[in-house]
Fold this protein.
Amino acid sequence: MLDDWLADLLAQVDLAAPLLPVVEEFRQVILRDPEIYMLFTAMLVQVPYDKDPTGQPQVRTIDAMLALFNHVMTHAPGYNDTGLVGFPINAILDWAMGTPAGYAAFLNDQANEQFAKMLDEWATFLRSADSTAVLNSSATGWLGPAALKKLGDVAKTYVCDPSAPHWGFTSWDDFFTRQFRPGVRPIASPTDAGVLVNACESAPYRVASNVAEREQFWLKGQPYSLAHMLAEDPLTPQFVGGTVYQAFLSALSYHRWHSPVDGVIVKTQVVPGTYYSETPAEGYDPSGPNDSQAYITEVATRALIFIEADNPAIGLMCFMPVGMAEVSTCDITVYEGQRVRKGDQLGMFHFGGSTHCLIFRPGVRLQFDLHGQVPGLNSSNIPINSRIATVTGGDS
């Protein structure tokens, strides 16, 4: 299915078309830096396929890769049924991410700087009225039957107007960051400081305890490594030996973040990082980097929002949204010193899908409520603002 989508995209793209300035800049960086040139050339050659299911050649050259990026820059992602819906650049790079050269290429700082520039430029288009072209009722439209079957009752669930053009959404980004109608996601136990609520509309991925300050996070099992996750922040030692809860947001999810507790914002930071790096321990991932979600908490672009909870049994905690591929714009909307209540907005992701963590100090005892699910890639979304954990004790 993904190969079919990529073959269709290749058929649409004029490989000889002039490159947009931001893509041409990326091309020059690749050509002029011997390490990047070697890695990008090698990863495309190392991809373990020759042709797609239609018999057409796949992405094997830097020029073809850049031509595809160039096309994406002026198109919003249409709906499809692949595991990479909403991730066109990720789809282009998906196989290359799993090659030995790809492991190195996507950790290169200069390459990641260029990805950041390119994604920022694409973001400008996705905030424009031109990007509403995919907000229609066709088979590949986000308001068509196939998409609405996955999204649910959009008209009743989200703030929109089905009688207006594009249901009132002014851009792809406006649709992607759509808001729930009042009352759709009530806050669980709003006056009980012992109940933590779900910070994102997300599926539980992992709960880990006694988390180490430093671990070999790139190995099989992907252990959490707090010093790397928290970017060596001076507050890191307070969390060593504590608990991490991680959950995944798909491209179809609601992408705003809400506070899980009542408290005060202590510190916020956006940490620049990688965009398409995945751990070599997982091999080829058809929906990369889904299988690398624990690993990317240490290396990907992410935000840190430290909250001092009013409940002393919780105390200082950290909410950490982590970008995945195209969804690496972490937009923090709270400020240091701000008081927040459970369910108040903290910020949002822009584009595609993503992951997030709640990080707690050692001594904070929690009983997690995963709504009858076992954490993992096959779990389903738990509604935002619903109970996610109850405090059973802690050090004040």
About this structure: The longest strand covers residues 263-271.
